[in-house]
Amino acid sequence: MEYLYERVAYLRGLIEGLGIEENSKEGKVITNIIEVLGDFADAINELYDSQEELNDYVEAIDEDLSSVEDELYEDDEDDYDDCEFIEVECPHCNEYVYLDEEVLDKGEEVLCPNCHEPIEIDMECCDDDCCCDH
Questions:
Q1: Coil vs helix vs strand at 80
Q2: Same domain, 16 and 74
Q3: How far apart are CA 18 and CA 34, in angstroms?
Q4: pLDDT per residue as tens digits for the range 82-96
Q5: Residue 89: left if φ>0, alpha if ψ -120 to 50, beta else—which one?
Q6: Residue-level pLDDT at 98
Q7: Total structural domains within the chain
């Protein structure tokens, strides 16, 4: 952002080189224009510095949020690794249904949540983790 200061300084030098009197009408206008340009350069530099600080802060927040998400999702993945659910295809509607192993162990009748028809389950294959979906 230093180029703004350099350009304003160049204009100041140009005006001095032209020999324009600051007390004349034109001199007052041009001098005030140069001062306003200097104020604009200051304001833009302040905004630039604030934006850089804000970017650094947002990056830090993003990194912290990413760490929190990793912790939360890591815990969720661990919950599903216990193989508490069995994936079964309904013979009536051919939709896949996830059933809780505890319900199956009790021998309760299981109804498909999609078509509401009973699903018969062969529990012999579940000893080998073949029914578990990881």
A1: helix
A2: yes
A3: 14
A4: 557 788 888 889 888
A5: beta
A6: 84
A7: 2
Same domain for 100 and 75? no
Residues 111, 71 within the same domain: no
The residues of the chain scoring below 50 in pLDDT are: 125-128, 130-134
Six token digits for residue 112: 């498909």
Structural domain including 65 reads: 2-79
Q: Would the pTM of this model clear 0.70, i.e. be above it? A: no
57 lies in the same domain as 105: no
Q: What is the 3-state secondary structure (H, E, C) of 14-78?
A: HHHHHCCCCCCHHHHHHHHHHHHHHHHHHHHHHHHHHHHHHHHHHHHHHHHHHHHHHHHHHHHHH
- Within a domain: residue 133? no
